[in-house]
Design goal:
- 33% of the residues lie in helices and 25% in strands.
- By secondary structure, it is of the alpha+beta class.
- It has one domain: CNF1/YfiH-like putative cysteine hydrolases, CATH 3.60.140.
- A 6-stranded mixed beta sheet has the order 1-2-3-17-9-4. Strands 6-8-11-10-12-16 form a 6-stranded mixed beta sheet. Strands 13-15-14 form a 3-stranded antiparallel beta sheet.
- It is globular and about 55 Å long.
Length: 280
């Protein structure tokens, strides 16, 4: 990992304690962003206050996260914010009128899903991460977005590739027209064992040659897994152009002073919100 490249990205792409990819800069109808630890600690501390109860938890969290979005765009008028109950699956849900109305009535998250897509304007799609990789996909021709949570299991199950397929079916998306941001997660120092390698082999998503590029053996029982390389392979196989993919140089383990890492902080890390929305 290039420390110089990370230092440049930290300086240029983190403003007001919020990281933003640059690949969407030329599109004025979309926003994509992720909170750093400094911002995250602020809203989590509020949630831990006396004003937070189980009954009103999602309502308060929604208001905080919408306020967070307004730091990106002060003129943004969010209708709602939708985020799934992540389960390390490759399940993807289209956020339509019915999903939104059900959420407004029950205030319950979408269950058993790690990807959400929509064409609804002013609806924030969000996931929470602290090592797993957040991925944002934008279709400028059909005005559609997708947000995906891709840890090692989701990556082995090709969640982003399946997400793009669903965007094709639901929104007539052409993969060659898509723009993708792969946000901060654990670096290629991510240590795993034989069971993870086995899952990648069994999935049938990767060839043996690709697996050899993704996994680096470190001793008899351990490997380093490069999720970024694996996800880039999946995006290219799905038909996304290489020049339309931005992969961050920031990582939760190497930049742990500003990004939460579940593994590095031994299970005590907060979760950082990663969000996208379309503007009317």
């Amino acid at each position: 990992m290039s420390g110089k490249k990370r230092a440049i990205e930290r300086k240029k792409q983190i403003k007001n304690r919020i990281w933003r990819p640059r690949i969407f800069d030329n599109f004025f109808d979309i926003k994509c962003f992720m909170a750093t630890k400094q911002f995250g600690n602020g809203w989590r501390n509020f949630i831990k206050s006396d004003r937070f109860t189980e009954k009103n938890s999602n309502f308060i969290l929604d208001k905080i996260l919408i306020r967070f979005a307004k730091l990106i765009d002060s003129n943004f008028d969010a209708r709602e914010i939708i985020y799934p109950e992540l389960a390390h699956t490759n399940n993807i849900v289209e956020v339509d009128d019915e999903i939104v109305e059900n959420y407004k009535k029950s205030k319950k998250r979408i269950l058993n899903a790690d990807g959400i897509i929509t064409k609804r304007a002013n609806t924030i799609l969000m996931i929470f991460v602290a090592d797993c990789l957040p991925i944002g996909v934008y279709d400028p021709k059909n005005k559609a977005i997708g947000v995906f949570h891709s840890g090692w299991l989701g990556t082995a199950q090709n969640i982003v590739g399946l997400g793009i397929e669903k965007m094709q079916r639901s929104f007539s998306a052409n993969p060659e027209d898509l723009y993708v941001a792969v946000g901060p997660g654990y670096s290629d120092n991510y240590e795993v064992q034989e069971d993870v390698l086995k899952k990648f082999r069994e999935s049938g998503v990767f060839s043996e040659q690709e697996i050899a590029e993704i996994f680096t053996k470190t001793d008899e029982t351990h490997y380093h897994l490069d999720l970024y390389k694996a996800i880039e392979m999946e995006l290219l196989k799905a038909g996304v152009k290489k020049e339309n993919i931005e992969i961050t140089s920031l990582h939760t383990d190497l930049d742990n002073d500003i990004l939460p890492s579940h593994r590095k902080e031994r299970g005590q890390a907060d979760r950082a919100p990663f969000a996208m929305y379309l503007k009317k």
